Amino acid sequence: MASRRFKIIDKHVEFIDSLVGKPTKVLDLGCGPGFYTSRLTALGYECKGIDFSPYSIKFAKERAVEAGQKIEYTVEDIREADYGSGYGLVMIVYGEFNVFRTEDISNIIEKAFKALKPGGLFIAEPHRFEAIKSLGNSPSSWYSADQLLFSDDPHIVLSESFWNEGRKVAVNRYIVIDAASGEATMHADAMQAYREEQYEKMLLDAGFSEVDIYPDLAGEDEENEHLIVIVGRK
Description:
Layout: H1 6-20, E1 25-29, H2 35-42, E2 46-51, H3 54-67, E3 72-75, E4 87-92, H4 102-115, E5 116-124, H5 129-136, E6 141-145, E7 155-164, E8 169-178, E9 184-192, H6 196-206, E10 210-214, E11 229-233
Parallel strand pairs: 1-2, 1-4, 2-3, 4-5
Antiparallel strand pairs: 5-11, 6-7, 7-8, 8-9, 10-11
Helix pairs in contact: 1-2
């Protein structure tokens, strides 16, 4: 449910391959179920994926074995993980950039820079400022489900969002009510918004010599409503 359609991923991988130019060593931060790494490996890239979700990594490892692919997958927090070195490409896609505090994502960018070999690329796909602001200003809503993300049992989810203008942060809260017991639990997430010039500055401050901005990870001219692409070259 949290993954893109394969047809879209195929376009993205084709564009990424065109930016890099030739197969190289790749680190995918927040790799999820390995849909990008598996495709890049099929093109001759040597891939490593890191993700916080053991279920995503388990799925990725199983699919790699089925496909006869040699891909290194590890369950780690990318804020703390050792990235290694010698990569021609480090990537963090699908909006993961904005879920971290500014100091954490700045550290991630610096670690990515150090992990790249000279001339290597860092590709990020963060949210547009207005997209995050719109999320923070979303109306309250609710839904019921027999089994979904928050619970394996029948439940109701009440959600509300807030936009903090001072900090430029969107906060989403989810109140999950168990259908049988009526017990309620609360979950929350936050997303930090940045302008394009702020994304560019973050990469330049980390040491990248060139920074390019693209409207879409498919390399198309049409502007993506929610996400943009920032590419830094070491």
